[in-house]
What does this fold into?
Amino acid sequence: MNATTMKMSSSAIRDLKPSELPQIVMPRCEARPVLRGQTAIVTGASSGIGRAIAIAMGAAGANVVVNHVGSDEPALAAVDEVTNCGCPSRGQAIAVRADVSDESQVQAMFATARERFGAVDIVVNNAGLQQDAAIEDMTLAQWRKVLDVNLTGQFLCAREAIREWKRRGPRPEVSCAAGKLLCISSVHEVIPWAGHVNYAASKGGVMLMMKSIAQEVAPWRIRVNSICPGAIRTPINRDAWATDEAYADLMRLIPYKRIGEPDDVARLAVWLASDEADYVTGASLFVDGGMTLYPGFEAGG
Ligand code: NAD
It folds into this structure.
């Protein structure tokens, strides 16, 4: 190219505007069997992020326990999707009802998983809920409910899993690690959230619970990590994306200018649980389209 054409083309070129870009989302891809022969318990897996993780782990070869608390139907539909996903190396799946904040129900769920599949290799602490109120109106019941499910529920499942992994050690035929614990936290483990103090406190608690457990059990080759989603299109935050106005408002918080999909989280969960992430422990990995990049400062502050 000579100097003249260089000058012409550079003046003709302009950057695309963000609004001109097509909205492209990764298609569900052909899964590689990176979790073959392992068993995963996914809590709160009858909807949203948990459901997507259960299906993705099943497609990657894991046997999956679809934990749920509500009616059987959506949990059985998730089981059906794992069983019939068409991936050649897909695992098997069962639905197990258990309230993760109840110690005996959690222990019974692990016993069922071991009876059915022999061992538990992966636990995804996903079950969670919100009960929002201004601080002056928040009842003790709302505070306790959110802490019980989002934080105590994660502790109970973590403890049960680690008891098995420390007793048994690695199963080298399926993984380098004795076990993998994934805590589904939130961007609100670092971003304060007015009107949601119970939820933000629970996720802040998950962060240091996860890191403290990771430090304690790493010598037993147990890996413990968190996934921190931003805004993901699920029932928990329908108000934030269900109308055009709400969606446009939400985009002010997301530099990448699209809402996250449950599969965005599921792909990271499969990778973190696999031996491809064998040297990763004690990490909070954000899958948030840049929500934690202080988007309020994108125009210079
Ligand atoms: P969701 O409401 O679809 O999923 C939550 C699931 O947890 C439901 O299936 C619910 O039945 C289950 N659950 C509630 N209480 C339970 C209990 N006591 N025992 C067992 N299961 C119980 O919403 P989601 O967005 O898929 O949420 C999944 C996780 O992701 C939650 O921990 C949530 O805090 C986290 N998260 C979600 C977003 C988002 O934008 N959707 C962002 C950050 C973090």
Observations:
- The beta strands are 39-42, 63-68, 93-97, 122-125, 179-184, 222-229, 284-287.
